[in-house]
Amino acid sequence: MALGLDEILDSSGFVPHGVCLLWRPDILALHVASDMLIGLSYFSIPVALVYFVMRRRDVDFGWMALLFALFIIACGSTHFLMVWTLWNPDYVLEGLVKAVTAFASLGTAAALWWLMPRLLTLPSPKQLEATNRALEQEIAIRRQMEMRYSSFFNNLAESLFIVQVLPDGEFAFEAINPALARSTGLDPEGLRDRRVTDALGPEVAESIIPRYTACRDGGESIDYEETLLLPIGLRVFHTMLVPVKDAAGRVVQILGSSRDVTERKRLQAEVLQTSKLATLGTLAAGMAHEMSQPLNVIRLWTENMLSRLRDNLLEPQRAERSLTLVIEQTDRMAKLIDHVRSFGRRDGGGMQAFTPAHCVQNAVDLVRHQYALEDIEIIESATSAQMPVTGRPLELEQVILNLFSNARDAIIALRATGGEAGHIMVAVSDESDGQNVAIQVTDDGGGIDPSVLPQIFDPFFTTKEVGKGSGLGLSIGYGIIDGMGGRIDARNVDLEGGRHGVRFTITLPSQPVSSSDRELSHA
């Protein structure tokens, strides 16, 4: 038969626990005092645990502390009920509280043993102390390294800068070193943490931002030359950019180094100009002959018209024909003079897209008649080259003229020893890969000694007699082709009829190439 709650809690049939103690005041006092102190202590411990967990939310296993607090509160409650049952026989209530305590104890014990392996892995105070000492040492080392790198960054003669890639894809200056500040006239503090578009003028920003974008998007190092209008004036820099990636592979910084090459570029321009004038000097005789031909034609036809005019025999049709011929010959001379003037002036223009075949044709037109006087024939192969390249047309024309001049000298030198020679073959073609244009200049002048062939592009190296060559022509040509992202090489070849010669091959890319690809092509 089921019992009601009132019947279960009914304590009328029990006697208080004090009866067992014979109501002795001294024993009652001892039990009351002990249980009250234990209960109060038990109740204070959970308060401390809850306070600790609330203040230190970073502590692991905080829920375990709360479970201990519940268990301890239950234990404290049993001690308060033990005082209560000294005078009130509510033993059923006391049993229920003990049951709650038992379940709380069981759960706490189970959780504690479950956590035991993880608790045992917690470092001891000695381990924590050793770890702290190691961290302090590492921090000290890192600070020393930071100071060392900071000193390196600030004292290096090379111009250095750090660009931060912002979350929106824009760029901001993080720092520039004093060397860059001196070479550009920029204020390091004025650039720090400022966007590139805000820190520099629109013209300079538009020039450098595409480079930063290419480095960020490509994720590879790039190097290039740039001309910038800065507070100290117009300067030319050779700049290298290196991307810095985070753990996810995203470019977050760009490290840059710049070298002011303004003076070097000026000296190179002087050397190029000197080489141009030297080339024109060697072509002077041929150009004089080229000019004398149309002048002789003009003189003959004008003298003929003047004679007929004096004899009243000049017919309108003949006069028109003569004047038309005079105009054609003057146009021929004007084009030759204009081309010589264009070739001889300083090339201050920038890089541009052009067709190499035009440069080759211009070079051939300049020397064809002069070389013909020396019984040297320039043979042009039919060309279908249409791809453009990027560079300076007059500089490429200078390289071709220098190769023609070397071929002429080799042919004349071979003839002096009794050999037969007199042909220069030139060809321009688009390579099958669709990415490069090849220019080949071949002569039958006997070739180059294989032992010195690897040195012919070195500055001041020449195979000619003393006083007949500076040794700079091929070196300058190598620099021009390299500046266009191309390469030039030479090899001896066997030709028809048992003749021998050398073939120079210039390979130019139809698209700009990266620095790594350029280094690979040279290798």
From TrEMBL:
Query: Membrane spanning segments where?
Result: 36-54, 61-84
**NCBIfam families given in the database record:** sensory_box
Q: What is this protein called?
A: histidine kinase
Give the enzyme class: transferase
Molecular-function GO terms, alphabetical: ATP binding; phosphorelay sensor kinase activity
SUPFAM superfamilies in alphabetical order: ATPase domain of HSP90 chaperone/DNA topoisomerase II/histidine kinase, Homodimeric domain of signal transducing histidine kinase, PYP-like sensor domain (PAS domain)
Pfam families xref list: ETR1_N, HATPase_c, HisKA, PAS_4
Per the database record, which ranges form the PAC domain?
222-273
Per the UniProt record, the source organism is: Azospirillum lipoferum (strain 4B)
Enzyme Commission number(s): 2.7.13.3
Cell cycle keyword on record: no
The residues covered by the Histidine kinase domain are 286-512
Q: Write out the entry's keywords from A to Z.
A: ATP-binding, Kinase, Membrane, Nucleotide-binding, Phosphoprotein, Transferase, Transmembrane, Transmembrane helix, Two-component regulatory system
Q: What catalytic reaction does the record list?
A: ATP + protein L-histidine = ADP + protein N-phospho-L-histidine
Q: Which PROSITE patterns match?
A: HIS_KIN, PAC
**Entry annotated with the keyword Secreted:** no
